[in-house]
Amino acid sequence: DILVPLRLPPHLEPQPRLADGPGPRGAFVCGLRARDGWTRRCRPFAEGFCVELQGRSHLSSGLVLRWFQGHLQRCLGAVRYRLQERCRVSLSACPGQPPTLHILPCSDYVCCHISMAVRLIPAIPLGDALYLTALPPEGPQGSLAPEALWGLNASRQEQRLLGWLKEQAPAASCHLKCLQILKGLRDLRGHGLEEPFCSQWGRVLSSYVLKTALFSLLLQGPLEAWDERFLVERLEDLVLYLRDCLRKQVLMDFFLGNTRIPEAVALPRFLKEAAPVNLLSAFDGPTLDLVAFQLISTWIQAPHIIRMYSSPRYLRPVPAP
Description:
The protein is an alpha+beta fold. The chain is built from twelve helices and ten strands. Mean pLDDT is 85; it is low at 139-144. It is found in: Membrane. This is IPIL2 protein. Belongs to the ITPRIP family.
């Protein structure tokens, strides 16, 4: 993922929305509202990029995404000819999703035929290394509310936290490896699930939810316990912690209104004063219970799932008993 900051007119004000307001639950949402009289003075911009929400003009994430994709396609057309001897470049996009740039190097060496996909995300700077990005689509929507609202991107704060953890944790800490393994098990398990539960499984156990669970668990105990020698134990702790959150239907966003973040990880005032958000509030109890049950089943059957759904060339030989 690469954030592409956009420069906007100065007359758009961020307006955080309450949990019971328009827009999806379980996420921080923010509108960019135009000031009074501004839409009349900048009518071409307002007509091309704004929608009405509760009687006020708001910058539309959907319209910005469509403009961004077209602009990117024109830029790509200008440079593709110069790049054709070194690589093949193409652009793909799904409705409501940021465009993805696909790069395939041209080489006579087999090892160099490794493609790369770069997701280019248009972002609205809020200051203090915070950005607003388009909310992910949640299926057909009859309301304009999702298009008029934006989500919060705190990836820079995640990097600061990871940097602090790297300094405090043992040199051979396994916390990132636990996250990678859990994400891999989630993806492999998804191959054997049928719709609509397969989509619910991926949405409930999103990468952001898994990272949030890991960060929350890391701050509950001594970091020395995350030495790589205890990889299996810590991975099981992470699975059980996530299971408990699903059963209680509560997993609070790690950065919004969290007073337990170490002081060494400097957070902007915007995050400190934000209202806490429950990342699981968008899902009903039966769905979360089913995901919790499937998560424990996946953990118990992990070796079998890995053998069944992984490519044989990535599997290591099983050692003799």
